[in-house]
Known about the structure:
Structural class: mainly alpha
Amino acid sequence: MSEAVDTLGNGKKKDEKESVGEFIRETRAEFDKTTFPSSDDVRNTTIVVIISVIFFSLYLFVVDQAWVQLLAGLTWMINKVVGI
């Protein structure tokens, strides 16, 4: 049977378990590597998202209304041709 390959390079086999303390230490080390956006970045991104949502909702509303009018016109025309 094949063994699990350690892709992270920490030298542990799949069956070995790490202690809770070691897990917490490694988690804190990874957490220290993360970066968080500034409040200006969050504000600017939020504004961009809100503007995008408004734009696309208006665009989809206009396209939907155009399809409604087109289909209503086609239905009216077909009814006139058929004589209903």
